[in-house]
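A reminder from the course coordinator: this example appears on the midterm review sheet, so study it carefully.

Given structure:
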């Protein structure tokens, strides 16, 4: 839900939900509130139990303290046309961490705990690039942190998330690995300026993408399914980078199991089915049929 939007966004969201994708992540600054506003209009047509949704507060709100964080959350609820949000993340970046850690600990997280007790949010999360800083907040906070979301830290060039899985697991915190394809690192366009990889990695990946396009007209990032050989090669490479001493599948806590896709075999089977439609057809009633989403 970031970037340019058009009329097709409604179809994209509805198609995703009907095919079992049930977690939607947004934020105020994704389009300067447009993402939340558009989602609010789309989701009024969808049963609330069919999806989970998260939004964020960040540097812009942290500087303004507890009252402004609650005000930001209230405005997000209004734009999304919801009575509660499943997860509210505190987004932490390098620029706003050092002078603001006390505000994060003693105002921002306290404000979100008030919102949780009031039923406005269900879970509190931390998100950002620097795992050490996220871990420091977790260690120092007297507010329960439920979920951590980090970006580009679980990919071939950077698997530092593996070093922190045990730490978060012991704390009972669910872990989300954002941008497993490393945010455009292997595309001809390259990653955005804020990508956490160092310049050497960025230049090497850009050169690799250019080489493939010039030599064989091959795009490194493609949606074409992998062949059996490619699958085996990928698995062999990933075994070199994943911390095999940690059982990744055991990291899920009851919270992350509920939110992020650990489901029974019966539900898995249900997700693969086409959505059923209740009642008579549109031709018979003159009304749109009610879609059954697989998450219900």
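Designed residues:
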């Amino acid at each position: 839900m970031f970037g340019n939007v058009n009329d097709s966004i409604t179809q994209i969201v509805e198609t995703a939900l009907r095919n079992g994708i049930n977690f939607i992540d947004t934020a105020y600054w994704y389009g300067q509130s447009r993402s939340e506003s558009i989602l609010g209009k789309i989701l009024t047509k969808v049963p609330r139990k069919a999806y989970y949704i998260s939004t964020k507060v960040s540097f812009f709100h942290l500087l303004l303290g507890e009252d402004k964080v609650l005000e930001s959350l209230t405005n997000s609820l209004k734009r999304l046309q919801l009575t509660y949000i499943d997860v509210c993340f505190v987004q932490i970046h390098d620029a706003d961490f050092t002078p603001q850690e006390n505000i994060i600990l003693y105002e921002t997280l306290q404000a979100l705990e008030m919102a949780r007790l009031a039923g406005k949010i269900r879970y509190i999360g931390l998100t950002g690039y620097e795992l050490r800083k996220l871990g420091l907040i977790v260690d120092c906070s007297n507010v329960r942190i439920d979920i951590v979301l980090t970006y580009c830290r679980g990919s071939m060039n950077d698997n530092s998330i593996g070093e922190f899985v045990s730490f978060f697991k012991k704390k009972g915190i669910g872990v989300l690995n954002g941008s497993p394809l490393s945010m455009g690192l292997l595309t001809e366009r390259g990653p955005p300026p804020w990508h956490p990889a160092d310049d050497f990695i960025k230049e090497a990946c850009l050169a690799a993408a250019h080489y493939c396009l010039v030599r064989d007209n091959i795009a490194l990032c493609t949606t074409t399914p992998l062949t059996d050989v490619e699958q085996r090669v990928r698995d062999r490479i990933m075994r070199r980078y994943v911390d095999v001493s940690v059982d990744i599948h055991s990291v899920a806590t009851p919270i992350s199991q509920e939110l992020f896709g650990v489901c029974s075999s019966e539900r898995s089977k249900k997700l693969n089915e086409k959505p059923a439609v209740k009642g008579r057809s549109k031709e018979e009633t003159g009304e749109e049929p009610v879609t059954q989403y697989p998450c219900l």
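DSSP finds 13 helices and eight strands in the chain. The first strand starts at residue 23 and ends at 25.
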